[in-house]
Amino acid sequence: METYLLVLTVFMIIGSVIAIETKNLLSSVISVGVVGFSLGIIFLMLGAPDIAITQVVVEILILVILIRATISTDNTAIEKHRDNLPIVASLIFFGLFLLFSYFAVHDLPVFGEPVMKVASRYLETGVRETGATNIVTAVLLDFRAYDTIGEATVLFVSIVGAFVILRRQGRKGRGEKDVEKVGILEDEDIKKNFEGF
Amino acid sequence: MTLYFLTMVLFVMGLYCLVAKKNIIKKIIGIVIIEYSINLFLILVGWRKGGIAPILMKGMDQKELVEHSVDPLPQALVLTSIVIGLGVLALMVSICLRLYEKYKTFDMSKINRLKG
Asked: Tell me, what's the ipTM?
């Protein structure tokens, strides 16, 4: 079990190295797809089928969005010029980060024996109190429903933001006059607009 | 322990991509990789050896579920986080497309006219 997980995680790391370092943006996006789908397989092996389904669907959507961003633009190849100082500084910082995280992961609960203080109560009373046989659903929609409200709010706001940014209508120069009148109609407008009635 | 460390390696690689690359799409890809690594880490923390999915199947006892199931709490929260990641990615890509329309490039060092 753990060997499979190790192999898949190393596969994810190789995929993300290719995604980061390749020069063509489209192949970089495809490598992100490799990383995401192997993440879905790992979720399936870790006993989380709901997340695996969500991950696969979301990964497809991410690929569609990113390919839309890269394919409609001309310069998919990346120009070669780099500053060495920031890269070296960030590499030193990341090396230190990895060193400290290597010591930090030893203080975590041992892999395979989680601390399930809160979750054991959910598992005991989940089916009886909520009536959902899937405990993840019970947590998501009953025990922690406020989190789900927050999620829906964030999702709504981000989609509205994307829609407003990508919208084409409603653009006029600063000096131009309004094409259509908005608000209370005056008598002439009523005559003009509703002549046929 | 090795798996936890590997997720940290993945996180650092995403952070490197976010900091050192000039291309905006590459930066977005770095954010996506960071999201993946953190989700994987949280699910790994909740895994139990020989664990089953937290679903009460037909003919299964309540006690059996409590003893063998993996931790359902990080799964529920990661489910939230994955969907939020998708929404944020859509917002970022739409901003990038507008930037490309204005500057005809994805290069961060050429997007430098701050006046609207």
From this structure: 0.89
In a domain, B57, yes or no: no
Q: Tell me, yes or no, if A79 comes closer than 8 A to chain B by beta carbon.
A: yes
Does A113 sit within 8 Å of B49, measured CB to CB? Answer: yes
Task: Supply the mean pLDDT for chain A.
Answer: 84
Which one of A5, A20, A151 has the shortest CB-CB distance to B17? A20
CA B82 to chain centre: 6
pLDDT tens-digit map of A135-190: 888 888 888 899 899 999 999 999 999 988 888 766 666 677 666 655 566 666 66
Q: Has residue B115 been placed in a domain? A: no
Q: Which of A 167-196 lie inside 8 A of B, CB atoms?
A: none
Contacts of B17 in chain A (CB under 8 A): 19-20
**Total number of domains in chain B:** 1
Q: Which domain holds residue B106?
A: 2-48+62-110
